[in-house]
Automatic annotation (TrEMBL):
SUPFAM superfamilies: GroES-like (SSF50129), NAD(P)-binding Rossmann-fold domains (SSF51735). It comes from the Bacteria. Keywords: Oxidoreductase. Residues 27-115 form the Alcohol dehydrogenase-like N-terminal domain. This is Chlorophyll synthesis pathway protein BchC.
Length: 321
């Protein structure tokens, strides 16, 4: 079967091309994509050629934030799934192109166990937020934030959800730093600080944090945040970092613990789905931009990667979505 897909053909080179899907196995489902999204973390690094290792070997299909409708099921899959909206974290089901997640395709074939059914969610597009929320939820589990003071660096999509989850899971205080006013305005943190317009030391005076969560990847922001950590505090690195380059003195003097959060854990996608369904995790504020898949994709990717007002770019695959 043929499908239109987004393909990274080289460093900062992108095109839509026809690709070939592998044959559906007895335990696979075929999903018609309605929406996918552009990751401004891992996908941006891959776009710029900064992850030169499998599965990021050109040409490859990016995308791990995809929502679509099941249109075919394998022989050993429950037919009741037909017509349901699902979140899929990508696919390796292609014959003629590599898949670095592989979700940015008009049709996606994937094992049934890799889908998350979106029953009960009023707007299925909210399923795009499942991996972001699950990543942030994993931070909370690693940090054990109940009754603790939490500092979140960065109010991009993951940072916004991390603040909400920290509050929901019982943090005693949640502060957030973010230099872009539009992003800070969406934040629900108890204490919000713009480091470009305020003296961070003055704004956070009197506070010492048990937990710091970084969703910026900016070494200067991390170094500043470390000054406000308690003795034996815990730092969660929430992104993918090519190199770590921070002043060690704060870590040494305070005996800080550093934890690398790789991805969400088993069951986290389902936990986030339930939080969205119950209205306990609000996702609409992070979906700031949309772009039809048949328009200028370079424009969409450049805006997603470079416009600070673009928190999450949604690519529309179906006109009647």
């Amino acid at each position: 079967m043929k499908a239109k897909a987004i393909v990274f053909t080289g460093v900062r080179q992108i095109e839509t091309r026809e690709v070939t899907l592998k044959e559906l196995t007895s335990t696979d489902v075929l999903v018609e994509t309605y929406w996918s999204s552009i990751s401004t973390g891992t996908e941006k690094m891959a776009f710029n050629g900064l992850i030169p290792s499998p599965p990021f070997i050109y040409p490859f299909i990016p995308g791990y934030e995809t929502v679509g409708k099941i249109i075919r099921v394998g022989d050993h899959v429950n037919e009741n799934l037909l017509g349901k909206f699902v979140y899929i974290a990508g696919s390796f089901g292609y014959e003629d192109v590599n898949a670095a997640f592989g979700g940015a395709s008009q049709y996606v074939a994937c094992p049934v166990e890799s889908i998350t059914v979106l029953d009960g969610i009023d707007d299925p597009m909210a399923g795009i937020a499942l991996p972001l929320g699950a990543t942030a939820l994993h931070f909370m589990d690693l940090a054990e934030i109940r009754n603790r003071k939490v500092l979140v660096l960065g109010q991009g999509a993951v940072g916004i959800l991390a603040v909400q989850l920290a509050q929901h899971m019982g943090a005693s205080l949640v502060a957030a730093t973010e230099p872009h006013p539009a992003r800070l305005a969406v934040s629900e943190a108890d204490l919000r600080v713009n480091p470009d317009k305020e003296d961070v030391s003055a704004a956070l005076a009197g506070h010492e944090f048990d937990v710091m969560i970084d969703s910026t990847g900016v070494m200067g922001a991390i170094e500043t945040g470390l000054r406000f950590m308690k003795f034996h505090g815990k730092v969660i690195f929430g992104g993918y970092y090519q190199r770590m380059n921070i002043d060690y003195s704060q870590a040494f003097n305070k005996e800080l613990s550093f934890v690398a959060a790789r991805q969400w854990a088993k069951g986290d996608l389902l936990r986030v789905r339930e939080l969205i369904k119950e209205g306990k995790l609000k996702t609409s504020g992070i979906f700031t931009h949309t772009h039809p898949i048949d328009k200028n994709l370079d424009e969409a990717y450049q805006q997603a990667f470079n416009d600070p007002n673009c928190m999450k770019m949604i690519l529309e695959w179906k006109r009647d979505a």
